Amino acid sequence: MSQAAQPLPHVTHQRAVFADGLMLDCGAVVAPLAVAWRGYGRLNADATNAILVCHALTGDQYVAETHPLTGKPGWWDNVVGPGKPIDTDRFYVVCVNVLGGCMGSSGPPEPMTDAEGRTLGRPWGTDFPSVTIRDMVRAQHRLMEHLRIARWLAVLGGSMGGMQVLEWAATYPEAVFAAAPIACASHHSAQNIAFHEVGRAAIHGDPEWRGGRYWEHGTVPAKGLSVARMVAHITYLSEQALSRKFGRRLRGAAALTFLEDVFEVESYLRHQGSTFIRRFDANSYLTITRAMDFFDLAAEHGGVLAEAFRGTTTRFFVASFSSDWLFPTAESRLLVRALNAAAANVSFVEIASDKGHDAFLLDEPDFHNALGGFLRGAAERLGV
Questions:
Q1: CB count, 10 Å around CB of 306?
Q2: pLDDT value of residue 239
Q3: Which residue out of 187, 188, 357, 358 is catalytically annotated?
Q4: Tell me, what's the pLDDT at 296?
Q5: DSSP bridge pairs for 160
Q6: Confidence grade of residue 66 (pLDDT, cut at 50, 70, 90)
Q7: Helices (H) and strands (E) in the chain, counts
């Protein structure tokens, strides 16, 4: 992993482009607005079988197919597909690269434009405006209108994807029949913000950061971005998972040394960091982590979380995992209590798992069965 690592290779993504752009919460306008997305399955004649899957911080729109940069399977390939919990034989599944991302949607790596939408011949970089989770959802709503979908059968996602689900249910309740916020919370905790800040500091401290203008030099702040990924990845796991996978096993070293990876867990984290820089942009990482940090659904509604859902007719499925310390079950229970206070239709499950926050991405049959059952019930209710 060199400091002079090369920028991401160019990939042509499926996109919808809106010339009039989008007004952001910060007051800036991004025009034109590009929304990169993928669809799986087939939209039925009356467009009632559409499900929106919202991705997490380091995810993207390639949820159930080979990733164009890594060649690896989609990040939720075990959940989305024919006969799977999110059954593409029955549902039309849409996944969108978030606003501020780096896989085709408007974001720091995309060409910068002026107030009239004219290209300025350089990437946005650090000049890309600050975005919020609500901005991301508004961009997705533009795509929804473009696809002529009046209401999602369900909106679902984990982690930052769950934050988007909550924002969808609060901002566009009439457009969401069912919502499944998974392993998430209605706001980011001080601890989570602190971990993000360590990652951002690592990027800023990389000599190749160059004030965020690394694109001018044909390099990326690879070491800083790699460390940011390593720090974040620790929070996605649990102590039990790390102990089970690695323990204190050494990698054949005869003695301890500071000059090489000795413990297997060290090698694993470095691998996670080195592969991450091949598919993610540092400025996008800064943009998206800030959006997560500023998310506070209660604050958007007078400090009372229940007010975000007052009068809602959306059906909710809230799921947490027992070993998730990034978004612990206590946060999901607070959300459920707020939904109950708003007289919402809500079911809740805590899945017993020792896999930590990443459990929602892994092989968890009880979770898959619960999620699949919730979606089938919603579809039957609508006659889909």
A1: 16
A2: 86
A3: 357
A4: 97
A5: none
A6: very high
A7: 9, 14
Q: Name every residue whose Cβ is closer than 8 Å to that of residue 175 and which is 6 or more positions away in sequence.
A: 141, 144, 150, 151, 152, 168
Write out pLDDT tens, residues 192-202.
Answer: 999 999 999 99
Q: pLDDT band for position 3 (50/70/90)?
A: very low
Q: What is the DSSP string of 176-201?
A: EEEEEEES--SB--HHHHHHHHHHHH
Which residue of the set 106, 324, 332, 358 is catalytic? Answer: 324
Residue 7 has pLDDT above 80, yes or no: no
The sheet carrying 33-40 orders its strands as 15-18, 33-40, 92-96, 50-54, 152-158, 176-182, 315-321, 345-351
- The answer to whether 364 touches 351, Cβ cutoff 8 Å, is yes
Asked if pLDDT for residue 254 goes beyond 60, the answer is no
Is 159 a known active-site residue? yes
Q: Which is nearest to 153 in space by CA: 43, 51, 84?
A: 51
Class of residue 15 by CB neighbours under 10 A (exposed 0-12, middle 13-18, buried 19+): middle
**Helix boundaries (H) for 147-238:** 160-171, 190-205, 222-236
Mean pLDDT of 321-330: 97
Contact indicator for 6, 220 with CB cutoff of 8 Å: yes
- Mean pLDDT value across residues 252-260: 59
Residue 304 makes CB contacts below 8 A (sequence gap 6+) with: 298
Q: Give this prediction's pTM.
A: 0.94
Pick the catalytic residue: 55, 60, 87, 159? 159
Q: Are 182 and 211 in contact (CB under 8 A)?
A: no
Give dist(CA 9, CA 196) in Å, integer: 26
Position of tokens 């919603």?
378
Q: How far apart are CA 171 and CA 196, in angstroms?
A: 26
Is 226 a known active-site residue? no
